[in-house]
Structures are given as structure tokens and as C-alpha cells.
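Session log. Operator J.P. requested a structure for one protein chain; no other inputs attached. Running the standard single-chain path with C-alpha cell output.
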Amino acid sequence: MSDQSKDSKPFSQMLPESAPSSRQVAKFLTAVAIGATLLTLSGLTLTGTVIALVLATPALVLFSPILVPAGIVLFLVATGFMFSGGCVMAAITALTWIYNYVAGNQPPGAEKLDYARVRIADKGRDVKERTREFGQQKGQEVLQG
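Structure written below.
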């Protein structure tokens, strides 16, 4: 018994000295009543689900050659509508961005587009100058040769 700490007290002394208040008792009883009700409802739901599955299984087996392709068709139709809606949203977003850009409202990314436009124009001028120089060199070679 020398392993016990010096602060250990008998169990009867660790119990609270006063009884719980009526508010605490009401909270506890309400929680127990709600918990029991929800547990009963979940049990009834599980029982009803199992009974419905047992009763519906023969019908599902009989109609599965019809239900499976119908389910696949419904899935494909729903997927098509969702894809179509996504394309419409993308088009609306793109057209709104273009409208804002043309109207001068500077939508997000407009600076990058302007920078790319300037770079492409610069490269175009460089290619034009090089082509002109190359044409002049070839023209002089043809005249000399």
C-alpha cells in the first residue's frame, strides 16, 4: 500500500457533498428522454428499411432487365444536362469577360492579355523587318549574280 499517493482519499469522500440541482436533473432527464426517443425512431427506421428491402427484392430482380438500362439512360441524360449547363456557364463567363474588356473595365487577366498583344505585335514587326532585309539581300544577289 506504500504505492498509493499521500493525497488519495476514500471513494466516499470524492463524491460531491451536495445533491445535483433541479436544473441539472431536468437537463439529464430531458437528454435521456430525447436520446431514448431518437434511438427508438432509428430502430424503427432500420426495421422498416429491412422489411421494405425484403419485400422489394423480388420486384427488383424481376424488373432489373428494364431498370438497369433505364438507370444508365437516366444517368447519361443527367450527365448531358449538367455538361450542357457547364458549357453555358463557361460561355456566359467568357462573353461577360470580353464585354468588360471591350468596355474598358479591366477584368481580371486583362493586363496579361495586353502584354501578350504588345509582345506579338513587336515580334510581328521584327519578322517584317527581317523579311524585308532578307528580300533586299536576295534581290541584290539576283541582280549581281
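Operator note: The chain has a mean pLDDT of 88.
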